[in-house]
């Protein structure tokens, strides 16, 4: 008979129970065993070993202790697992070929690069390495949270206060359930430099951090081949780094030998030698006559003697191909961030550490502040008692017992008028009765009763005052730190620099570029970007998707946020892989891929171009030109150069495919000549040059031959007067109508011409011109308006049809009627009907005006006043305004910028 009480059982889904149990197990392995914490770079077992040694006093300034003693403490108090696992972890932290900065100072046999295991724990001795004290510093100052140990009998830190980013310095590896981590070690000094850069600028780009961290720095040295694996790891958290052992070629008599002096990280040296011997035996490598390992305490030295008839470089290449003398390190920068596993890039790791240290310093400062205030509270009580010693003694003598004396001291109101300001600064526990009196607290009364009579001596009184003064200064300092984040970050940075100065060592691993390196651009995700350039030379890129994502409501978005004196002068859309050319006023050209521009948002200002390109003193960028990604498209395009002395030169755009990092000469200039403008042009277009003295010339592009040289100064585009110079170049649409047809067309009122260009219907008979309707429409569609601005604030718009087509090299025609009233011309540019103009004067004044208010007139007119100038004031610059709020929300989304 079944007597089982079925009320004690509950049905459970086997599938659900397996899921729950497996997830619990997986998270336990991830969080409590295999994955390091991003804050201190330690797994629980390593953290427990270091903390147990710290608590037991096995520090760098004391004698070594038996490793068995340490392992026993760790197992008994914090880590209830096998002693083998704990000892293996301790051993690894003492190996200078495993950790870039060993955390334990070991004495005895702690293993070797040949794979030899360490001696038993009863034979070896250990103590904390000196740098480990910086992992544990201030742990007793409430800087980190403590949690109960496995049985609740002890408490252990959930993380160490870690004063340096140990995760990057020593790296880490581990295999959890469904995930793994493999973080390479780095040079301590480089990592701290990167942290300081981040502290100075939280918006720093990852690629800028590479100016500090060159790449991993392995304790076994070696050579890293190429930088793309490094950059991939730092940008994405994943990458593969190719490492090669360091070799030298020595002459030994009449033959050569390959000497291996460094091997790749985590490679077993004895197995490497065995593999080479195996390859020789199997005749896969036939040029080796002898092989021996001469390594000792001074370092690695594996000698590979080469046969007389063998080519040493071929043998070395075979060693790289067939053995672990060249290997790869697969980077997976996965760590626990807020208790959750996360693949992090370089900036993520550094920012997490800096934020953690900021919290640690804040908690430490609060702890020290409270301690100082507690001490000041007692000293203030003694200070008041000493000032009123007669009354204190009377109360104590009259009391029947200490308890009554304490109560009466606490009930009495004491005069504090002379130290009221000091009390308010340093004592947050003072119990005020009135503005100038207070009561003793219980702690103060107890301290007074326990006060020694020697406190009444003059020396002790002075010491009491001195202690209070020092405490007041300490408390003021702590309060300043807590109220000023820059002050706190300064302390953080200073502490990092102190560690760097004391413990940093030269880099062991070198990084070499070569044909083995893959293209860096393969790491850059292809994405459409909006590039904006401001009048004062700031540039940025913003993802095109940013605008698309915020335009669905149809209200647009706020554009570039900047100072009033700056405006956006250029905007274009390109891919992250779009190449760009930057032409300077001295005739240099620089090349940059779009992804190297600073990434921003629609409201950010960007960065000055001078901080991005290696410009010389006084050199400025005059033109920025995006190029097609497909280099084959360059073959159908030309660019036209014009200098201030009127020289022009046409080149194939393909001549500028390859530009070195420091730029190259785009055009040769005379000493007193400058590059004014560079424009893309086609065979059927026209060039309009304008000068400061009011002259202009229009000629076809094909009247300038295509030059094959970049060092030529070109040919005469315009003949100039002695005091004249070219100030602008405009590329105009080509036209084929006669002069009479143009004159007939120009007799049509400008309002009607603009309306026709916009698509308005009309009757050609109403204009009394000898032109067909089709001719009028075609000419209206090709009509362009040229804006001319003079230095005394005058300006006008003129139809491009007013400028007759001539041969290049002439003296030109009148562009503007100049006089003392107008001054010289400062700007000539094509302008649309709805464009706006920004004028800047030599006094720093600005005016923004709509061009629709500037009437269209003939060439030989003076124009109208755009800006009333004061005495001595001149227009120094004129630019068309690109409305980044409107344009970016309309044209960009249509792909027509």
TrEMBL record:
A Pfam family the protein falls into: DNA_gyraseA_C
Active-site residues, as the UniProt record annotates them: 123
Catalytic activity: ATP-dependent breakage, passage and rejoining of double-stranded DNA
Cell compartments where the protein resides: Cytoplasm
Enzyme Commission no: 5.6.2.2
PROSITE patterns assigned to the protein according to its UniProt record, in alphabetical order: TOPO_IIA
Motif GyrA-box location, chain numbering: 550-556
Listed Gene3D superfamilies: 3.30.1360.40, DNA gyrase/topoisomerase IV, subunit A, C-terminal, Topoisomerase II, domain 5, Topoisomerase, domain 3
Topo IIA-type catalytic domain residues: 35-529
Keywords in alphabetical order: ATP-binding, Cytoplasm, DNA-binding, Isomerase, Nucleotide-binding, Topoisomerase
Principal EC category: isomerase
Complex and partners: Heterotetramer, composed of two GyrA and two GyrB chains. In the heterotetramer, GyrA contains the active site tyrosine that forms a transient covalent intermediate with DNA, while GyrB binds cofactors and catalyzes ATP hydrolysis.
HAMAP family: GyrA
Remarks, miscellaneous: Few gyrases are as efficient as E.coli at forming negative supercoils. Not all organisms have 2 type II topoisomerases; in organisms with a single type II topoisomerase this enzyme also has to decatenate newly replicated chromosomes.
Protein purpose: A type II topoisomerase that negatively supercoils closed circular double-stranded (ds) DNA in an ATP-dependent manner to modulate DNA topology and maintain chromosomes in an underwound state. Negative supercoiling favors strand separation, and DNA replication, transcription, recombination and repair, all of which involve strand separation. Also able to catalyze the interconversion of other topological isomers of dsDNA rings, including catenanes and knotted rings. Type II topoisomerases break and join 2 DNA strands simultaneously in an ATP-dependent manner.
Family, as annotated: Belongs to the type II topoisomerase GyrA/ParC subunit family.
PANTHER family in UniProt: DNA GYRASE SUBUNIT A, CHLOROPLASTIC_MITOCHONDRIAL (PTHR43493:SF5), DNA GYRASE/TOPOISOMERASE SUBUNIT A (PTHR43493)
Protein name, per record: DNA gyrase subunit A
Organism encoding this protein: Candidatus Trichorickettsia mobilis
């Amino acid at each position: 008979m079944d007597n089982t009480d079925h009320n004690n059982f509950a049905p459970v889904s086997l599938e659900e129970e397996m899921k729950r149990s497996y997830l619990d197990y997986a998270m336990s392995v991830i969080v409590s065993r295999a994955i390091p914490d991003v804050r201190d770079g330690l797994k629980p077992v390593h953290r427990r070993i270091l903390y147990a040694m710290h608590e037991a006093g096995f520090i760098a300034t004391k004698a070594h202790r038996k490793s068995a003693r340490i392992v026993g403490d760790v197992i008994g108090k914090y880590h209830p697992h096998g002693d083998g696992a704990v000892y293996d972890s301790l051993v690894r932290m003492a190996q200078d070929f495993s950790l870039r900065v060993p955390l334990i100072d070991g004495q005895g046999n702690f293993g070797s690069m040949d794979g030899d295991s360490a001696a038993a724990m009863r034979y070896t001795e250990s103590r904390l390495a000196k740098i480990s004290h910086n992992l544990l510093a201030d742990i007793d100052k409430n800087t980190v949270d403590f949690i109960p140990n496995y049985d609740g009998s002890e408490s252990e830190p959930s993380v160490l206060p870690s004063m340096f980013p140990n995760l990057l310095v020593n790296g880490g590896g581990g295999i959890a359930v469904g995930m793994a981590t493999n973080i390479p070690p780095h040079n301590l000094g480089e990592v701290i430099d990167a942290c300081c850069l981040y502290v100075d600028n939280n918006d720093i780009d990852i690629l800028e951090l590479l100016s500090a961290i060159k790449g991993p720095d392995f304790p076994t040295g070696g050579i890293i081949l190429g930088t793309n694996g490094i950059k991939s790891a730092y940008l994405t958290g994943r990458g593969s780094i190719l490492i090669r052992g360091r070799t030298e070629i020595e002459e030994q008599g009449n033959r050569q030998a390959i000497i291996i002096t460094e091997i790749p990280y985590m490679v077993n040296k004895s197995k490497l030698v065995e593999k080479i011997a195996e390859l020789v035996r199997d005749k896969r490598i036939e040029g080796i006559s002898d092989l021996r390992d001469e390594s000792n305490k001074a370092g690695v030295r594996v000698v590979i003697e080469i046969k007389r008839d063998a080519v040493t470089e071929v043998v070395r290449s075979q060693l790289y191909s067939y053995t672990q003398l060249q290997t790869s390190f697969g980077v997976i920068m996965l760590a626990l961030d807020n208790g959750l596993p996360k693949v992090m890039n370089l900036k993520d790791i550094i920012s997490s550490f800096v934020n953690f240290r900021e919290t640690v310093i804040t908690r430490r400062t609060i702890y020290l502040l409270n301690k100082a205030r507690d001490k000041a509270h007692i000293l203030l009580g003694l200070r008041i008692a000493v000032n009123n010693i007669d009354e204190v003694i009377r109360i104590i003598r009259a009391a029947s017992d200490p308890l009554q004396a304490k109560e009466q001291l606490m009930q009495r109101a004491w005069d504090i008028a002379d130290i009221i300001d000091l009390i308010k600064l340093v004592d947050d526990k003072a119990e005020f009765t009135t503005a100038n009196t207070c009561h003793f607290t219980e702690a103060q009364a107890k301290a007074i009763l326990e006060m020694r009579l020697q406190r009444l001596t003059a020396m002790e009184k002075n010491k009491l005052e001195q202690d209070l003064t020092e405490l007041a200064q300490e408390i003021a300092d702590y309060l300043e730190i807590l109220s000023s984040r820059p002050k706190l970050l300064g302390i953080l940075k200073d502490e990092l620099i102190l560690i760097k100065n004391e413990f940093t060592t030269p880099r062991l691993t070198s990084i070499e570029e070569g044909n083995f390196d893959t293209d860096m651009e393969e790491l850059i995700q292809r994405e459409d970007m909006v590039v904006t350039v401001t009048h004062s030379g700031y540039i940025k890129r913003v993802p095109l998707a940013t605008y698309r994502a915020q335009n669905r409501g149809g209200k647009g978005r706020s554009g570039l946020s900047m100072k009033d004196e700056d405006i956006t002068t250029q905007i274009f859309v390109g891919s992250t892989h779009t190449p760009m050319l930057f032409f300077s006023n001295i005739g240099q050209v620089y090349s940059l891929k779009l992804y190297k521009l600073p990434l921003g948002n629609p409201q950010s200002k960007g960065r000055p171009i001078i901080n991005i390109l290696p410009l010389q003193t006084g050199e400025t960028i005059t033109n920025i030109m995006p190029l097609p990604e497909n280099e084959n498209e360059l073959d159908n395009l030309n660019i036209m150069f014009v200098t201030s002395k009127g020289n022009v030169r046409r080149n194939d755009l393909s001549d500028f495919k390859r530009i070195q990092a420091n730029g190259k000469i785009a055009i040769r200039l005379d000493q007193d000549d400058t590059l004014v403008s560079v424009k893309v042009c086609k065979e059927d277009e026209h060039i309009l040059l304008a000068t400061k003295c009011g002259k202009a010339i229009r000629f076809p592009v094909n009247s300038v031959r295509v030059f094959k040289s970049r060092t030529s100064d070109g040919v005469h585009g315009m003949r100039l007067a002695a005091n004249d110079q070219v100030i602008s170049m405009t590329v105009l649409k080509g036209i084929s109508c006669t002069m009479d047809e143009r004159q007939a067309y120009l007799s049509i009122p400008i309002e009607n011409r603009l309306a026709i260009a916009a698509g308005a219907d009309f009757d050609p008979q109403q204009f009394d011109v000898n032109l067909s309707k089709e001719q009028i429409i075609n000419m209206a569609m090709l009509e362009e308006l040229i804006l001319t601005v003079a230095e005394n604030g005058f300006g006008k718009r003129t139809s491009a049809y007013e400028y007759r087509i001539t041969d290049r090299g002439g003296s030109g025609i009148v562009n503007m009627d100049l006089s003392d009233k107008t001054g010289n011309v400062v700007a000539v540019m094509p302008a649309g009907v709805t464009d706006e103009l920004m004028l800047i004067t030599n006094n720093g004044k600005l005016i923004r005006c709509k061009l629709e208010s500037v009437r269209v007139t003939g060439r030989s007119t003076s124009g109208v006043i755009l800006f009333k100038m004061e005495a001595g004031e001149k227009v120094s610059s004129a630019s068309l305004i690109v409305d980044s709020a409107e344009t970016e929300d309309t044209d960009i989304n249509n792909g027509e910028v």
